[in-house]
Amino acid sequence: MADDGKGTDAGTDDTAEEAQERATRTADARYKPLVVRSEAAAAFIGAKAEVFDKDGEADPKKLARLLRLVNLAEVEVTDDGTITGLADQVASIKTDYPELFAGPKSPPRPKADGSDRKPESTRPKTSAAALAAQLGGG
Description:
Blueprint: H1 10-46, H2 60-67, E1 76-77, E2 83-84, H3 86-96, H4 127-134
Antiparallel strand pairs: 1-2
């Protein structure tokens, strides 16, 4: 190739661009899963996923179960760090697997008592107790 006097060669520009592109793909392949998983964990916690144990600590097994459901190929991370496609997946997972998310809690049912006993009366048992209750002595 002939030198045009500027010190650049068209062949080296192509390889430099290719090297830059390869480096970008390598960095994306290496760091995209980490970024997406971190953001997905935060999104699942925000969506009230049941990932906490009795002590209030995040259970890695429960969180990993949810993270396996995220399709990394459908999530894009832009150059400025914006993540697109993750919120849609979290909403879809929440719809498909409602048992993994905290739902409205129903009030506890009263416990059944199968005995023949009648409930205790709230009336005072003695006349002295009745008089004390009337006088406010309790």
